[in-house]
Write a structure and sequence with these properties.
388 residues; Rossmann fold; 2 domains; 35% helix; binds nicotinamide-adenine-dinucleotide
Length: 388
C-alpha cells in the first residue's frame, strides 16, 4: 500500500470504527442498566478454562450464559468457576433465554462462522476464537452484516496486544534493524489429543497454530500481497478422545511464504508433528519463535508470540545481543474477549482489529489454494497498519 493510500485507509477505517462504536454503544447503553456488558460464552471445552477466569476478572463484564451442545460441559463450567450463569444446550435456546450483549465463540472451528452469523442476526456483538469463519468470503460477509446492524465483531488471536509486539513494531519503525528483508515464524507441537475437529476438513495446523505467526508477522511487516505454500499430512490417522481413531483430513504440516510491501518476504512454518518439550506452554523457554532480519540488525521474539518472554535485539558487531522488553505487562493470550468487551464499555478502540483477523483468514485460504495448485495466490485484503 502506498503512503497516501495507507493514510486514507487508516482515516476511513478510524472514522468507520468510531461511528460503529458509537452506534453499538448506544444499543448497549439502552439495554444494560447495571452498566456491565453481558456475556454469553458458547463452547465450554478446553479453552473455556482459560477464557472464564479472564472474563470473570473484569468489573465491566458479567457472564450471564454458558452454552454447549455437550450440555453437561456448560453445567460443569458454571459450577467449577462459580459463574452463576444460565446454561443452555444450543444457541437457539440461549438466544431465547436471558438477554446478553456479546457472544464469545469458543466452539469447534468449523461452526464459528454459522454461530457468529446467528448471533449477529440476533443483535449481539461477537468475539470469536480463530478462525472467525471458514472462508474469507464468509468472514467478510460477517463483518458487513455487523456493520449493517451497528454491531462489532472481532476474531482471535490477541498477539498484537503484547508489550513485546509493541516493542518490535516500534523497533522496526525506528529503523533499528536497517533495511528489513526477511522474517520467519514457527509454532508447532504434537497436536491436540482431545477433539477430532482439529484434524477434520476446515481444521489443520494453520488455523489452530500458524495463525499466531501470521498475525504477528503481518502485524509487524504489514499486509501480505501474495502467498505461496506447501502443505502436507504427515500423520494420516490419529486417536482422539471424542471420536477414537480418525482419518486426518486437514494439513498437519505447513510452510508458507508471504510477500509484503517493499520486497520483504516472510516465512511461517507450523504443524502438529513438532517435538517440543514446551508444547502448549512457553513457560520460561529462552528459544525464539519469531525472527526478523534487517541490514543492520535482527531481533528474536523469545517464547511464543502468544506467550512472550522478551525480545533479543542483535544489532552490534562489538556488543553482545541484548535481552529487552521482558515485562509482559499483564498480557495473556486469552485476554481478547475481555479486552474487546471492556473496549465497548469504556468507549475505546482496541488494538485487536477485525480486518487483521480477516487478512489472516485470507492467507490461510490462499495457502490451501497455493498448495493444491502450485500457484502464487494474490490477496485482496488490507488492515490498518502500522498497528502500534
Ligand atoms: N484448547 C486451547 O488451548 C485453545 C487455545 C487457543 C485457542 N483455541 C481455540 O478455541 C476453540 C475451541 O477449542 P477447544 O480446545 O476448547 O475445543 P474443545 O473441543 O475442547 O471444545 C469445543 C466445545 O465446543 C462445543 N461445541 C461444538 N459445536 C457447538 C455448537 N454448535 N454449539 C455449542 N457448542 C458447541 C463442543 O461440544 C465442545 O465442548 C478452537 O477454535 C481452538 O482453535 C483453543
Amino acid at each position: 500500500m502506498s503512503e497516501i493510500t495507507r493514510s486514507d485507509f487508516l482515516k476511513r477505517t478510524a472514522m468507520a470504527s468510531a461511528a460503529l462504536l458509537v452506534s453499538s454503544l448506544e444499543s448497549w447503553a439502552a439495554t444494560t442498566p447495571d452498566k456491565k456488558l453481558r456475556i454469553a460464552e458458547i463452547g465450554c471445552g478446553s479453552v473455556s478454562n482459560r477464557y472464564l477466569p479472564q472474563l470473570l476478572s473484569s468489573p465491566y463484564l458479567q457472564v450471564v450464559s454458558l452454552c454447549d451442545i455437550k450440555y453437561e460441559r456448560a453445567v460443569e463450567q458454571n459450577k467449577k468457576y462459580n459463574v452463576g450463569a444460565q446454561t443452555y444446550p444450543n444457541i437457539n435456546a440461549m438466544l431465547a433465554g436471558v438477554p446478553f450483549d456479546m457472544m464469545v465463540t469458543t466452539t469447534d472451528m468449523q461452526v464459528h462462522g454459522e454461530l457468529n452469523k446467528i448471533a449477529l442476526n440476533a443483535g449481539k456483538h461477537v468475539w470469536s476464537e480463530k478462525p472467525m469463519a471458514n472462508t474469507y468470503k464468509e468472514g467478510k460477509a460477517l463483518l458487513e452484516l455487523a456493520k449493517s446492524k451497528g454491531l462489532r465483531i472481532w476474531g482471535a488471536p490477541a498477539v498484537v496486544d503484547s508489550p513485546q509486539f509493541a516493542f518490535m513494531s516500534k523497533t522496526l519503525q525506528e529503523g533499528k534493524l536497517g533495511r528489513v528483508s526477511s522474517a520467519h515464524g514457527q509454532y508447532g507441537h504434537t497436536g491436540p489429543t482431545w477433539s477430532a475437529f482439529f484434524y477434520e476438513k476446515g481444521g489443520g495446523s494453520m488455523p489452530d497454530l500458524g495463525v499466531y505467526n501470521m498475525a504477528t508477522l503481518t502485524g509487524l511487516l504489514g499486509p501480505a500481497k501474495s502467498v505461496m505454500a506447501m502443505l502436507s499430512i504427515v500423520t494420516p490417522e490419529r486417536t482422539v478422545d471424542d471420536k477414537g481413531k480418525i482419518k486426518v483430513e486437514a494439513e498437519d504440516n505447513a510452510h508458507l511464504l508471504l510477500e509484503h510491501d517493499n520486497n520483504v518476504i516472510s516465512h511461517v512454518m507450523c504443524g502438529f508433528n513438532f517435538f517440543d518439550t514446551h508444547g502448549h506452554e512457553a513457560g520460561t523457554t529462552s528459544m525464539h519463535s519469531i525472527q526478523i532480519f534487517g541490514s543492520e540488525g535482527n531481533m528474536r521474539l523469545i517464547g511464543y508470540d502468544w506467550e512472550t518472554n522478551g525480545v533479543v535485539l542483535d544489532n552490534s558487531y562489538t556488543e553482545p545481543p541484548q535481552l529487552l522488553s521482558t515485562d509482559k505487562g499483564g498480557y495473556e493470550w486469552q485476554e481478547g474477549a475481555r479486552v474487546v468487551g471492556e473496549s465497548i464499555v469504556n468507549k475505546t478502540e482496541p488494538r485487536i482489529n477485525v480486518e487483521h483477523a480477516l487478512h489472516v483468514l485470507e492467507i490461510i485460504e490462499a495457502a490451501r489454494k497455493s498448495s493444491a495448485t502450485g500457484m502464487k495466490i494474490k490477496l485482496e485484503s488490507k488492515f490498518p497498519w502500522p498497528m502500534v
